[in-house]
Amino acid sequence: MLFLVAALLLLGTVLGTVAHAPLSFTLAAAAVIAVWLVVFAVRERHGRRRHTSAH
Q: In sequence order, what DSSP letters do the residues of 32-53 get, joined into one string?
């Protein structure tokens, strides 16, 4: 529960910061985060596939 409260407070802080940031900066940051998430997902899927086939 404490983790959820902390996550919501952090989300509120980030959204407040984004509201005051220029649109170009917000879009650039969103693109960087999206690329990072895609790379992470691909690496996780590749790692699980390799781990599963080894057994």
A: HHHHHHHHHHHHHHHHHHHHHH
> CA–CA separation, 30 vs 33, rounded Å?
5
Residue 31 host element (H or E): helix 23-54
**What pLDDT does 55 receive?**
54
Report the C-alpha gap between 3 and 19 in whole angstroms: 24
How much is the pTM? 0.58
Quick one: CA dihedral 36, 42, 46, 49, positive or negative? positive
